[in-house]
Fold this protein.
Amino acid sequence: MASLIPCPHCGVRPKEEFAIRGDASLVRPDPESSDETWNDYVHIRANPRGRYREHWQHVAGCRRWLVVERDTFTHEVFSVTDGSVRAWEIGR
Amino acid sequence: MPHQFQERHALEELVSMNAAAAADHLAVVARQAIVVVLAAEGQEASVAALLTADEEISVRFSAPGEWLVVTGLQTPELLQQSLAALLRETAHCVDQSHGRVLLRLSGANSRAILAKGIGIDLHPSAFVIGSSANVLCGHISINLALVDKNSFEIVVMRSFAESLLHDLCEMGRAFDLSVFFAP
Ligand SMILES: [Zn+2]
């Protein structure tokens, strides 16, 4: 796993300072959606080998939610963005 | 029946009052005023400017739009009131003086001691005087600031203070770290 995460607010920090929530690409379904749709949203994950975008929280630092784009195979970190910036960028 | 509250330091019975400090020393600061300031949305820059202009207080970064304001020159009540008057509706100010513990680690080996538990670059060129950051020390989240050449201040949540003190003593054992309440 990527062991050094460049937090946009705190600088480069060890991964132990963070908590990982998982896939950041999921969009919460409509409340009236079918059970299958909700089951997929809650339980089904791609677990890709390669580029992955996740929600990380810097719990021991600034406590902000971040979107970390990293490679699960090479451990390379491509980008780290504050969650609020990301939400604004994609219009959510 | 009215309750009587007595002020009691979190490390009162664990640390002595002796004044003879070794070359590397951890001072437990008995009295300080600490207020958390949280800027209202869009007011981050103006709050930061007002705080840094005040020379009686020390401002420690904890998150975007959030700081710890520390001073030994005012009582908690006075600091809280003066900050509320200074910042008005641009920020929320919450007195944390009794909820946090302030420790001051100083000595030529202070960086070597901290490096045993902290994952940031503490070299004088990277972490300069006046720098501050929320970091993990072992398993405990602290606010670390460099206040003088070889002197760090640590602000920790009150309930974690005893555990952190234990860790810091272990980290400082190789350097004969002394621990006393600040006079
Ligand atoms: Zn951070």
Observations:
- Residues 76-87 of chain B form the longest helix (12 residues).
- The two ends of chain B are 36 Å apart (CA to CA).
- Chain B touches chain A through twelve residues (CB under 8 Å).
- The CA atoms of residues 38 and 66 of chain B lie 5 Å apart.
